[in-house]
Amino acid sequence: MIMKLNWFVRKGLFYRPVTIMGWIILAAAVVFAVYTFIDINNTSHSVSDVLINFVFNLLIIGLFYTLIAYVSEKKPARVE
Hints:
Layout: E1 8-11, E2 14-17, H1 20-43, H2 47-71
Antiparallel strand pairs: 1-2
């Protein structure tokens, strides 16, 4: 038996949460991105250090969010 999660729906290039679990995952990703930015900003010495490190971390956070959303997205019904 396959469990249907249906936490996200794909809208163009992005995944939009449709359940409370999807919104929790999105909020956790945003909170972690803000925490990462603050941490990098406190330990870096220049603006370029902050931006280079933050963009790399933001790409990783986005990759994991997209992977979770892809696995748990609501697929449209196939018409045969």
